[in-house]
Amino acid sequence: MTAVIVILLALLLIAGGLLVLAPLRAAETADPDAPERERLEAERERLFAELRALPDSLEDREKDRRTELEGRAARVLRSLDALPPAPAGRLPAGWLWGGLLLLGVLVGLGAFSFIPGWQLAGLNSGEGNAVKTAVQLPGLAARARASGSIPDDLAWGKAAFDAGQYDQAATAYAAALKQNPRQPEALRRLGIILLTRNDGQANAASKPNDQAFLLIRTAAQLAPNEPESQLLLGFALSRYGENQAALTALERYRTLNPSGRDADDMITMLRAQLNKSDPGQAVYAANCASCHGASGNGGIGPSLRRAGLTRDTFTAITLHGKGTMPAFPNLQGKELSALVTLVLGWQK
C-alpha cells in the first residue's frame, strides 16, 4: 500500500513539474501594438514630468501652459486605454524553477506526514489511536527504564494499557507502585489486568483476600471521584456477585462521566438481575425509580439514601403521599414491606 502511494506521489510531482515548466517551452506571443504603446507611455511620462516641474503659484502664461499639458496628458491616457490589452508575458525562469522546487518540497512533506494518516483512514477512531499509541510504546518503555521515574512509568503503562499491551502495562504499573503504592491509576489498572487473567476463578468467598479486587478497591478509596475508579470497581464487584454494590458503583461512574457509555450494558443486566432476586428492587423499579433515581440517589424527587426516615414515616408517605409525591395506596403486604426494607437498608 505504501509503495503504491509513493508511486502516485512521484507521478504527481512529474505532472506538476511539466505544468510548471510548460510556459518555458511556449513561444512568447508578439504584441502588434507594442511600438504605439511604448510611444504613448513615454509621452505620458514626459507630460507628467513637465506638470510636476511647474511652480505652485503660476502666472497667467504658466496657467495656460498647465491647462495645455493637462489636456495633452488626458488625450494620451485615452489613447492608451483604447489599445487592446498586451498579451501576458512569460514568467522569469527563476520564478518557474522556484515554483517547481516548492512543489517538490510540499510533496516530500506529504509523503512523510500525510501517508500515515491515509493508512489509518480505514480504521475507526479507537483503532487509529491504538495504532498510534502502539508506535510510541518502544520509546516510552526505553525512557521509563532509563529514568526509573514514576511519571515515565505511568506514561508507559497508560500507553500500553490503551494499546491493549497488557503485559507491558502490568510491568510499567508495577514499577510505579514499587516506588509509591498510592497511585490510583496504576492500582486499578493493574488490578483489572490481574482480575481478567484470573477470569472464572473469582467468587464471593475469595473476594476479601483477592489481590486484584484489593487493588481496585484501594484505587476507588484513594480517588473516589475519578470515573474510571468507579467503573472498574463496578466490574470487579459484579464478578463476585455483589450486584447491588456493583450497580451503585457503575451508576456513580455514569454520574461522574455522563457521556461515558461503557457501563450501560452492565447496568441494564444488573438491574434485571436485582429485580428478579430482590422483590424490593422490583417494586422500587416499577414505582419509585423514575423520580428518585435507579439506586435512590435522587432525580426529580429527593435522595432516599439521605432521607433519614423511620420505617413508620416512610410507610405513611408511601401510602398517602406528601407534597408533590403521589400516594401509592395499592402497595400492601409483602410488596410494601420489601420496598421499605430496601430503602431503609440504603439509608444505613
Blueprint (SSEs and pairs):
Blueprint: H1 2-25, H2 34-53, H3 60-82, H4 93-113, H5 115-119, H6 125-147, H7 150-162, H8 166-179, H9 184-197, H10 211-222, H11 227-239, H12 243-256, H13 264-277, H14 279-287, H15 289-292, H16 311-320, H17 333-347
Summarize the structure.
By secondary structure, the protein is mostly helical. The protein has helices at 2-25, 34-53, 60-82, 93-113, 115-119, 125-147, 150-162, 166-179, 184-197, 211-222, 227-239, 243-256, 264-277, 279-287, 289-292, 311-320, 333-347.
What does this protein structure show overall?
Helices cover about 70% and strands about 0% of the residues. Helix 10 (about 210-220) runs antiparallel to helix 11. It contains 17 helices and no strands. The protein is elongated, with a radius of gyration of 41 Å. Among the domains are: about 1-25 and about 90-120; about 30-85. It has helices spanning about 1-25, 35-55, 60-80, 95-115, 115-120, 125-145, 150-160, 165-180, 185-195, 210-220, 225-240, 245-255, 265-275, 280-285, 290, 310-320, 335-345. Mean pLDDT is about 75; it is low at about 110-115 and about 120-125. It has about 350 residues and is an all-alpha fold. This is Cytochrome c family protein. One of its GO terms (molecular function) is electron transfer activity. It holds the Pfam family Cytochrome_CBB3. InterPro entries: Cyt_c-like_dom, Cyt_c-like_dom_sf, Cytochrome_c550/c551-like, TPR-like_helical_dom_sf. It comes from Deinococcus ruber.
